Amino acid sequence: MSEIKYQIEQIKSIDSEELASFAILYAPLMKPLSYQFYLLMSAILESHGRIKNARFFCETLHCTPLELTQAREELERFMLIRTYQSADEKSLIIQLRPIKRGFKFLNHEVLGRYYLMKMGSKAYQFALLCFKDPTLSLEGYEDISKPFQASDMSDYSMKEENEFQVYRIQRQDKKGGFDMARFLKKCSRLIFPNDQRNKENLSVIEEMGSYYHVAIDDMITFVGQATPSKTMQFNPLRFKELVRKKYLPLQKENENEYDINPVRFLQKKQNGVMPSNADARLLENLSQQFKLKDEVINIMIEHILNQNDNRLDKNYVEKIAGTWVRNEVDSAEKAFEACRPKERKTITKKKAERKLPQWYMQEEEDYEAASEEEIAEFKKMLEELEK
User: Fold this and answer.
1) Ramachandran region of residue 22, left (φ > 0), alpha (ψ -120 to 50) or beta?
2) Where does 76-130 show beta strands of DSSP type E?
3) Could you tell me how many helices (H) and strands (E) the chain has, helices first?
4) Per-residue pLDDT, 149
5) pLDDT reported for residue 205
6) Counting C-beta atoms within 10 Å of the first and last residue's C-beta, which end of the chain has fewer, N or C?
């Protein structure tokens, strides 16, 4: 692991507004190591470096190879980097993606919702005030921008075209993102007409497909449902609603309150206050290492808080988790059963009745009083014995 080479490239340099967004909006949602890892990679590029091995990052960030991998994967989930692995698995190309600026972040399809869920409505509203939409109104203005002229390509040769095609194919072969070319080839024009395949609509489809990892066949269904046969006009809002309904199900009022993300569940238990990093890592460990379902983790956490004076002691929690794994507690019903106090079987030891000798049980017999002659004879015998 420590010998894996990291080749870093960056789409664009980070400006001050993006850096502010990264510190204020991204950082509270991720582990500190992930935040530091991204900044370190950006700094390496600014210093004209590019290739480093994993050992360098581990030593600089004071982390283990496993923690470095987890940080990289978290940055991937936040769409801050794309990672490509070589065939021999000895080299990675990490492509730093642009940081979304404040207003775009807060209105983003995924990130905005995630921030609201994790930080709460007050923090979200405050962030909106901090990052107002900088877009100026174009009302009353005429677009006088000069378009690209075909004459600018007059020196473009067939040789350059061939090189471009090779380069484009290589870029498309990289994994990651929604395969728009395959979707367009497979989707019938009767479902999604040519005049609806414009830049805006395709951008929406590609974005939703990438963020939610939508399968091609499912995407065709969503696009068809969002393009009514009467009008044959693609409805982006309807399309987004269909995708979210399947890939981002919202909890209903009467739905199982335990079937939510454990960090979110603990936040509710703390009156909306975000759990500490240590508690969040503990809950994540219960899911990843112990393979417990969210509802089982939540029921266990609630039980421990009630029994342990609202404290989550790591050793105590993991001890119970290990017991539940061995007892195959894999559903809410089994979790509730495991929380019920067990009836202790009290073994009462019977006192062994002491057997008394037979003579003790016999009633005392009446003996006749000795006569004077018998007493005198008895004394005479004692005197002879003493001589």
Assistant:
1) alpha
2) 81-85, 91-96
3) 19, 4
4) 53
5) 92
6) C
What average pLDDT does the segment 257-274 reach? 80
Residue 131 has pLDDT above 60, yes or no: yes
Using DSSP's 3-state secondary structure scheme, residue 249 falls into coil
User: Strand, coil or helix: what is 96?
Assistant: strand
Distance CA 318, CA 324 (A): 10
Q: With 50 as the cut, is the pLDDT of residue 10 above it? A: yes
Of 289, 337, 343, give the one whose Cα is nearest residue 317. 289
3-state secondary structure 12-58: CCCCHHHHHHHHHHHHHHCCHHHHHHHHHHHHHHHCCCCEEEHHHHH
Taking residue 258's Cβ as centre, other Cβ atoms within 10 Å add up to 19
**H or E element at residue 376:** helix 372-386
Residue 251's Cβ-side half-sphere holds a number of Cα atoms within 13 Å equal to 12
Query: Which parts of 68-125 are beta strand (E)?
Result: 81-85, 91-96
Cβ count within 10 A of residue 329: 23
In degrees rounded to 5, what are phi and psi of residue 7? -105, 120
Q: What letter does residue 10 receive in the DSSP assignment?
A: E
Beta strands in 258-339 (DSSP E): none
Contact between residue 189 and residue 220 where contact means Cβ atoms under 8 Å apart: no
Phi, psi of 203 (to 5 degrees): -65, -40
DSSP H/E element including 324: helix 314-326
Sign of the CA dihedral 193, 198, 204, 206? positive
Q: In this prediction, what percent of the chain has a pLDDT beyond 90?
A: 23
Q: How far apart are CA 68 and CA 205, in angstroms?
A: 32
What are the pLDDT digits (tens) for 333-374? 899 989 887 665 555 555 555 555 565 555 555 555 666 777
Q: Is the torsion defined by CA of 152, 154, 160, 162 positive or negative?
A: positive
Find out whether 9 and 93 touch, Cβ atoms under 8 Å.
yes
Q: Identify whether the C-beta of residue 220 lies closer than 8 Å to the C-beta of residue 191.
A: yes
DSSP code per residue over 181-200: HHHHHHS-TTTS-GGG--HH
